[in-house]
């Protein structure tokens, strides 16, 4: 159970003169985004799309016969973690021990740290969490003999009998962590099997860096990685290096999650396979990068529709200083821009209680720290000072980390709840 979360004037977009409240009680205020009850910019999650996405991805994993451990780094929201677990998630994924602690507080009892753990403070922290929660099971990644040596050295210096659950990571040349060659992976797996401080639970990879939103290329590249991981898994299984009564095979899965399903459903090993998909961005989806990748997934899977964009950042038109240019009350402090500029999604003129799709010619061309540059055709729909614009995003992760809280809103703009973040 998460402790109550207090919202007040120290929380961006919470009205300065409003009486503070618990996040769970915000619906009692009867606020509405389109009534200008909250300050702009305002990050808002459409509850209907959020609920749909959680249910859709859980159903997809169930139909494919794989487990879902959503990546918590996307939102770092205890309330969203609890919703995903309640929706049927097998566990959660994190990138750090700090993030894991937030997930454990939210109720997670199975977790993957999809990253290397090797520092003393992190190993101490993980050991502490496992001691405090005897029902907690955590796997983290190992990709080198040097890392394994540091873990074993920690155990000697601490006088610890702890045996950590680990997954051997297979990497991609030129990209981030993971063993580059079969020989390297097998040498490491054998060393883990001999170690008293680590217990090999299976094999892991992250495929996202291979995808470029070309379905033919992505299928070929990801299948090549899947084949490499399976070869390592078969060799390790045949050698008896994988501990326990099942083999865990895990992959990322936010952009091309359908292409890793063959890995997660591998056959022919001596033990049952636990395939774990670690999709993260699906929970709110987006209007840009992941939306384009999803079109490819839908085509490959024969789907009419799947995930829906749930996250928007609302801003006011604060100035229209010249023809074709409007400035909005939103900037780099408020919204993601690492993959592409925000995308005008909806528009509500001042005083309107209904939002319509933003005109197709509206484009965001630049951001300052606190300003958005919205370009438009002066011969078309012209934004006016005081209008509201909902900006869609590309890459949810780097919008969530800019907010301590976000409003949950109904389709009519009513604020029905709130989520908080713990970055």
Question: What do these coordinates show?
Answer:
This protein is α/β, with parallel strands linked by helices and 423 residues long. It folds into 2 domains: 6-46 and 307-420, Beta Barrel (Lyase, Ornithine Decarboxylase, Chain A, domain 1); 47-292, TIM Barrel (Alpha-Beta Barrel), CATH 3.20.20. Helix content is 29%, strand content 24%. The chain contains 10 helices and 20 strands. Strands 3, 12, 13, 14, 15, 16, 17, 18, 19 and 20 form a 10-stranded mixed beta sheet that branches. Strand 5, helix 3 and strand 6 (110-116) form a beta-alpha-beta unit. Helix 3 (97-105) runs parallel beside helix 4 (120-132) and helix 6 (182-194) packs parallel to helix 7 (215-239). The radius of gyration is 23 Å and the shape is globular.
* Spatial gap, N to C terminus: 19 Å
What is the CATH superfamily classification of the largest domain?
Alanine racemase
Helix/strand order: EEEHEHEHEHEHEHEHEHEHEEEEEEEHEE
Question: What's the architecture of the largest domain, going by CATH?
Answer: Alpha-Beta Barrel
Radius of gyration: 23 Å
Count of beta strands: 20
- Category from helices, strands and their pairing: alpha/beta
CATH C-level class of the largest domain is: Alpha Beta
Q: Which key terms come to mind for this protein?
A:
10-stranded mixed β-sheet, 20 strands, globular, 423 residues, Lyase, Ornithine Decarboxylase, Chain A, domain 1, 24% strand, TIM Barrel, 8-stranded parallel β-sheet, 29% helix, 2 domains
């Amino acid at each position: 159970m998460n402790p109550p979360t207090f919202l007040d004037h120290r929380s961006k977009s919470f009205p300065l003169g409003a009486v503070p409240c618990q996040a769970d009680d915000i619906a009692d205020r009867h606020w509405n985004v389109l009534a200008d009850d909250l300050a702009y910019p305002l990050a808002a999650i459409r509850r209907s799309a959020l609920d749909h996405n959680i249910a859709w991805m859980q159903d997809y994993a169930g139909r494919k016969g794989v487990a879902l451990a959503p990546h918590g780094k996307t939102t770092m929201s205890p309330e969203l973690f609890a919703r995903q677990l309640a929706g049927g998630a097998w566990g959660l994924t994190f990138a750090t021990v700090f993030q894991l602690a937030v997930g454990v507080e939210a109720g997670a009892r199975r977790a993957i740290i999809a990253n290397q753990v090797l520092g003393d403070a992190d190993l101490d922290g993980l050991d502490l969490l496992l001691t405090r929660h005897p029902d907690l099971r955590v796997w983290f990644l190992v990709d080198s003999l040097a890392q394994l040596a540091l873990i074993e050295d920690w155990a000697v210096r601490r006088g610890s009998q702890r045996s950590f659950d680990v997954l051997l990571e297979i990497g991609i040349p030129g990209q981030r962590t993971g063993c580059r060659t079969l020989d390297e992976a097998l040498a490491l797996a054998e060393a883990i099997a001999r170690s008293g401080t680590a217990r090999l639970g299976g094999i892991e990879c992250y495929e996202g860096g291979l995808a470029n939103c070309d379905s033919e290329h992505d299928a070929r590249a990801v299948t090549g990685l899947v084949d490499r991981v399976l070869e390592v898994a078969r060799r390790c299984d045949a050698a008896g290096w994988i501990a326990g009564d099942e083999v865990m095979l895990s992959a990322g899965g936010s952009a091309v999650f359908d292409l890793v399903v063959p890995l997660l459903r591998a056959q022919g090993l001596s033990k049952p396979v636990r395939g774990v998909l670690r999709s993260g961005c699906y929970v709110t989806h987006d209007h840009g990068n992941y939306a384009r990748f999803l079109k490819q997934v839908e085509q490959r899977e024969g789907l009419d529709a799947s995930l829906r964009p749930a996250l928007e950042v609302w801003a006011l038109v604060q100035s229209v200083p010249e023809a074709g240019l409007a400035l909005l009350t939103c900037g780099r402090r408020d919204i993601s821009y690492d993959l592409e500029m925000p995308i005008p999604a909806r528009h509500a003129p001042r005083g309107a209680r209904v939002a319509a799709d933003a005109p197709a010619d509206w484009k965001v061309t630049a951001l300052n720290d606190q300003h958005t540059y919205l370009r438009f055709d002066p011969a078309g729909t012209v934004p006016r000072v005081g209008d509201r614009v909902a900006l869609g995003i590309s890459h949810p992760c780097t919008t969530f980390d800019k907010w301590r809280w976000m409003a949950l809103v109904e389709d009519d703009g009513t604020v029905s709840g709130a989520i908080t973040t713990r970055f």
